[in-house]
Structure to design on (171 residues):
């Protein structure tokens, strides 16, 4: 890749950094862990980042302007997860394999959420979340998590493209 392409690529990612940082910050809000019973572990936090990122990506898909940028936001996710894996001591040979699993998990969640959010009932969404999230209470359906995820999805739909790019996830 030429130096010019690298510079241009960074500039594109710079535009999406506020959105990426807000996605991560939203995924770390205490209510997800206290009220919605998501495990406050490394895996649980990954689940939350994946959930919030999926909701943001689904919102971006609805916009002609932002739809083409979903890949760039996903690249920020990949770069951050790659760095986190390396910082936690995962060796170079295993990072690629782990990243493949993470991307597969994200893709599966996107598809499941797209379908579940089309249904106005939270029961289907709760079922999808129960399969894809690490929860402290795995015996009961995560209705609080489903309600909060749906509320965030509704909020994202009301945010303008410019506000979303600036990192605003709620009106």
């Amino acid at each position: 890749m030429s130096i010019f392409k690298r510079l241009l690529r960074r500039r594109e990612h710079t535009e999406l950094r506020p959105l990426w940082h807000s996605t991560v910050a939203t995924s770390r809000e205490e209510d997800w862990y206290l009220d919605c019973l998501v495990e406050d572990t490394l895996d649980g936090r990954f689940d939350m980042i994946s959930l919030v990122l999926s909701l943001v990506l689904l919102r971006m898909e609805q916009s002609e302007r932002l739809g083409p940028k979903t890949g760039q936001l996903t690249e920020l996710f990949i770069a951050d997860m790659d760095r986190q894996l390396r910082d936690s001591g995962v060796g170079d040979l295993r990072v690629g394999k782990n990243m493949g699993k993470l991307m597969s998990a994200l893709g599966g969640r996107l598809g499941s959420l797209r379908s579940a959010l089309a249904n106005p009932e939270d029961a289907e969404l709760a079922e999808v979340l129960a399969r894809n999230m690490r929860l402290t209470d795995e015996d009961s359906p995560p209705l609080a998590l489903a309600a909060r995820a749906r509320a965030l999805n509704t909020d994202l739909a009301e945010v303008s493209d410019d506000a979303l790019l600036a990192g605003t996830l709620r009106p």
